[in-house]
Amino acid sequence: MALSDPSTVVDDRDWWLGIDDLTGPSVAPAEVPPPAAPVAAPVAPMPGQLSVCVSSPPFGSHAPCAAVAPASASAAGISGAPANFTQVLHTASASVAASPLVDASASVEVTAAALARGESRSRAAEADAHLSVRAALGTGGCGLRTSVVAAYEELGVHRLYPWQHACLLGTEGVLDGRNLVYSTPTSGGKSLVADVLLCRALQRRQKGLLVLPYVSMVEEVTERLTRLLRSLPTTGRRAGRPGAAGKLRVEASHGARSRNGFDGDVDLLVCTIERASAVVHRMLEMPEGLRELGIVVVDEVHMLADPSRGHAIENLLTLLRAERHKLAMHAARHPASSAPARALTHGSGSGTKGGGGGPQIVVMSATLGNPEVLASWLGAALYVSEERPVPLTHSIKGEWASTVALACEAVRDGAEVLIFCATKAKTAQCADALARAFEVALPEAALVTPARLAARCTLLERLHAASPTARTLELYTRTVPHGVALHHAGLGLNEKSAIEEAFRKRTLRVLCATTTLAAGVNLPARRVILPSPYDQAGVLLQPISYRQMAGRAGRAGLCELGEVFVVAGPRDRDKAVRRCEHNG
After folding, report:
1. Which fold would CATH assign to domain 159-384?
2. pTM, entire model
């Protein structure tokens, strides 16, 4: 079936790239089928608003969209505004500009207003002073060492979001070892809360366990925490050694790295779900059990609902819950002998509002359903935030929309793009189509500097050294020079690591990926494109899956705006609209 011939399309879901995917701008306007309905007048959606494009112009043009329904304002982290708000501002500005009379009293009023605004900004700055990392995370707040606070500042974190401050310092018992379940939208900064609690446990000379679902996440987080916590002393047998040997050690553990537990040389273990279960089982077989383990953090806990891996998370949480209960019962029967252990593990807190014994259990997710049920089962504090620092818009593209056209438009504007494909085969098909279209549509001389071109050559060398299959290497040779690559679970660890690093450095501009990138890897994509509202089984995307993929757009600290586009034919548009209206 020729993608460029719409008359051959039998099922809208099969036509997932669009008519311009392989031909690019060489398709004459006369060859493009006319839209089935009139094009709506362009109305830019407010952030957090859903827009539907009833048709799309030829490749390379801007597609007019009609805003049809606002998404939840709280979910987008903004407040609503009337549709004609911009026109009202323009009208008011024009009236002021047209006024020929400006007297002294008006000048005095303007000056007074300016002073009032300055005082208001000053008061706002004073009110936000408690949110600075030094005030919130230092000795007067969460009690982190000065060196760790400085490391946050080096990483570009200078201020907490209000919800992070409230969760850490306003939720009773959390800093004293009480279990915690919390949920915040993707890109809401949820990792910082867990990092702070991990750091507090390590400062008390306790070990920490961080559980993540994917190897790519394990590697990324291990690198970040190594930079953040490098100044802390070790918790183990290296404590008395001079120099770097006495520094805290963060290590990754997954299929390619076979460490199955802690020893005297590891302080913080970052591992996959299955490896975490093995680590805890092994510790429970030892005489000391989990006594040296101060905290266990489980990210993406919504995967409890995953049919293939959910049982591993449930088993892990069940073991931890039972161990805490056992230690709490022991502490209740022998309060004198348990007091020193409680003080070491949980600072000054004790009792039901604090830790109660055993490792603190912290679980988090951006898409957790019924978090109050999980919190009740774990005996945990619950904190839910709807604050999203980066505004996110959701749009539906009609049948004539091209995935390639959307990607080309974003790249031409200087943005990066993530395209989530249903299968590994479609990631390759999409990447190949993009590279061919970019070769014609995007002038390399205008978009690619000599430094970026050299970086792409270096990336190709790294990918070649990673020993991919001959077919994949051939695809890289065609796509990487145009800033396009693919990412899925079938790639080797070195391949994925090289591709992710290149995307962060903007050597690559577009990634065609399966859902391996939908849960947690922090990549700077302004635009996310879903070429179909269906998954690999031909089933409409589940709400959690949609929110995870949509949440990759507009990452905090990396982008100022996030855009999500779903390509859906006429028969699927209503379903896609319902999914996007509720952000899943």
Report:
1. Rossmann fold (3.40.50)
2. 0.71
